[in-house]
Amino acid sequence: MKRALTNTDQSAHALLGLELMRFACAVSVLLWHYQHFFFQGGAPVGFETSAQPLYTWLKPFYEAGWLGVQSFWALSGFIFFWKYAQPVAQGRVSTRRFAVLRFSRLYPLHLLTLLIVAALGLWYRQLHGSDYVYQYNDWTHFALQLFMASDWPGRSEWSFNGPIWSISIEVLVYALFFALCKLGLTRWWQVLGLIGASGMVYALKLTDHPIVLCVFFFYLGALTHLAHEALVKRPRWLQYAVQAAGLLAVTMGTALLINGKLRAMFYVAVLTPVALIVLLDWVQPRSATAIRWINRLGNTTYASYLLHFPLQLLLACLTSSLGFTLPLHEPAWVLAYLIGVFGLATVVYQLVEMPAQSWLRQRLGTH
């Protein structure tokens, strides 16, 4: 990308590199959760990480795919600073409008999948006398889920549609972001201060609350946006030099990670900003078909994130009630799982997410 992302009126394909990264993060989480297929009740049975299909090729996802969540947080930070930071700071986006935009985007599908999982969970409990994977499925946790506050207590008591935990934490960071933008705290050194403070809290283990890491990665994405905005105004040779330095850092980090000398969390903190910068510059297709497909992949990410566990739970109920088994060790099955989830997500995005979002925004007066 050869120009700065300074306003929201740019063409829809301005952030295509980010759409591809969103999709990669979604694939990462889905493959990490492939292990759910081996669960009976709250624990896996006969499960070996290295025995999962295509393990040689998919090892990073099977071993540490959960880190896709942290990259998602960084992506949110990048996009929110690009789209909202200055409009909020300048008073062009009100508190109500910001809240409605977020609510209409996130809540309808969350509510739908929560109700589906609650119903399927009752079926599974009747079949097995226990809950599937996530064990805190009581009325208290259902109430927390209804308010998208499942992990606000910070106790990691995952319940119902468990993957929503990261969204519930991100909602808190949205509120922090909006408040800090209203105060005008959007400069690079202020963002860097937030990254440093949250990183220090995490390193010193002052609290286990996941909001600490969410703040760190969200504002790491924000800093990446500010760096990208400054970089695209510089000569191309300097842009290439920065990209080369970033790729070298990732290469060195990969070697350290493989040798056990770098924690995966820190590796992702290096990889994500570099990937953002490189993908934004490199992913610039001219084909309208390619642009359409990349956007479509990006649009499936939220739905795929919330739909994959309900689908796994449904299959667990069906295999138990009908007496058949899934070919869990076959490469064709893991591919069918991914294709099925993203295919369903495409349909749900078009038939549920977008209509519900538009209806809520019209009723709540944001158009």
Would you kindly provide a written description of the structure presented here, covering whatever features stand out?
The protein is an all-alpha fold. 69% of the residues lie in helices and 1% in strands. The chain has helices at residues 16-32, 55-64, 68-83, 85-89, 95-128, 139-146, 165-182, 188-203, 211-231, 236-258, 264-282, 288-299, 301-322, 331-363, and strands spanning 39-40, 43-44. The chain has a two-stranded antiparallel sheet. It starts with 15 loop residues before the first helix and ends with a helix. Mean pLDDT is 93; it is low at 1-12.
Provide keyphrases for this structure.
367 residues; single chain; mainly alpha; two-stranded antiparallel ribbon; disordered N terminus; 14 helices
Secondary structure layout:
Layout: H1 16-32, E1 39-40, E2 43-44, H2 55-64, H3 68-83, H4 85-89, H5 95-128, H6 139-146, H7 165-182, H8 188-203, H9 211-231, H10 236-258, H11 264-282, H12 288-299, H13 301-322, H14 331-363
Strand order in the largest sheet: 1-2
Q: Can you give the mean pLDDT?
A: 93
Shape: globular
Radius of gyration from the alpha-carbon trace, in angstroms: 21 Å
Number of helices: 14
Q: Hey, roughly how much beta strand do the residues contain? A: under 5%
| Topology as a string of helices (H) and strands (E) | HEEHHHHHHHHHHHHH
What's the main sheet like? 2 strands, antiparallel
Given helix and strand content, the structural type is: mainly alpha
Query: What percent of residues adopt helix (DSSP H or I)?
Result: 55-70%
Q: How many beta-strand elements?
A: 2
| Distance between the first and last residues' Cα | 30 Å
